[in-house]
Amino acid sequence: MTELMGLIYDYTNEFRLNRYLDPHAYHMAEMKKLQYSSSLQDTLSSEQIKLLESYLEAVFKQQEQELAAMFQAALEIASELQAF
């Protein structure tokens, strides 16, 4: 990703993303996530929690790469569509 694309991506994430999220659905997903997190905290040992956190960090890094690639693809498609 070029530096300019990175800046646009960061701006989009910070200032535009929320426009495209359904507030109710997002809130419900957040509540479910907190519920599962609380259940895991109560169930898992501290060693298991550390392992889970490491796993989730790896998953989030992979998702971030996929989102960045999707953003780049969308910009490329938008550019191609402008030519029409």
Could you state the order of secondary-structure elements as H and E?
HHH
Uncertain runs are none
Structural class: mainly alpha
Largest sheet: none
If you compute it from the alpha carbons, what radius of gyration comes out, rounded to the nearest whole angstrom? 18 Å
Q: How far apart lie the N and C ends?
A: 25 Å
Overall outline = elongated
Helix run count: 3
How much of the residues is beta strand, in percent? under 5%
Mean pLDDT: 94
Helix content: over 70%
Give the beta-strand count: 0
What does this protein structure show overall?
This protein is an all-alpha fold and 84 residues long. It has three helices and no strands. The chain has helices spanning 3-16, 23-43, 46-82. The two termini are 25 Å apart. The model has no long low-confidence stretch (mean pLDDT 94).
